[in-house]
Amino acid sequence: MNHIAKAFPDSLLQQVRQMRIIAVVVIDDPEQAVPLANCLLDSGIRAIELTLRTPAAFEALKNIRSQCPQMTAGLGTVLFTQQVQQAVDGDAAFAVSPGMNPNIVKAAIEAKLPFAPGITTPSEVETAVELGCRLLKFFPAEPSGGLPYLKAMNAPYAHLDLQYIPLGGLNECNFVEYLNLDCVPAVGGSWIAPRNQIVAGDWSSIAATAKRAVAKLN
């Protein structure tokens, strides 16, 4: 099924599979991006999704990419096609969206930006597959029905070897259950570094949470 590997390269997907956890964060001050990235790296988290919920996200991305090259840093909440080019200009390793917007997927493929759209329904899965997506973001995971729903929804597409990154409602008590599924290479962890802890520069609390999560992987 080579035609469904266009939106996200296999080599990067393998990296994601090894990382297992992607810290999903909201940055208000781009100056906090590098300390946060270093905190996560020191705690065993090697991938981060900077959500485009604040204007600081692009500068935060550039800071991490230039000063913490060992961190795989991408962008989330990509809602407009112009943000695709901004992601490329910022050297984003990947980008994701909360929903399935065909225009954004096409723009990302054209720009050669590794991209995973958000899906919740079989119809969205089929739209994504037709456009060339193999890796999908299952969002919002828990409110949509969680693990039982994901298993049931993926059943008709198992022969396509689609991969899902669940996000939304995951926490340190339930995320390992998702990772036990063959179709889940990694999870999105918004609980790893809460916005208020980032604002406060509470790196010790973030490190403690990250280390507990990494320990559960082992």
Descriptive report:
This protein is an alpha/beta fold and 218 residues long. 45% of the residues lie in helices and 15% in strands. A 4-stranded parallel β-sheet has the order 3-2-1-9. A 3-stranded parallel β-sheet has the order 6-7-8. A two-stranded parallel sheet has the order 4-5. Residues 1-5 have low confidence and may be disordered.
Q: How would you characterize the largest beta sheet?
A: 4 strands, parallel
Number of helices: 11
Number of strands: 9
Shape: globular
Strand content: 5-15%
**SSE class:** alpha/beta
Radius of gyration over alpha carbons?
16 Å
Provide the CATH architecture: Alpha-Beta Barrel
Uncertain ranges: 1-5
Q: Give the overall average pLDDT.
A: 96
How many structurally independent domains?
A: 1
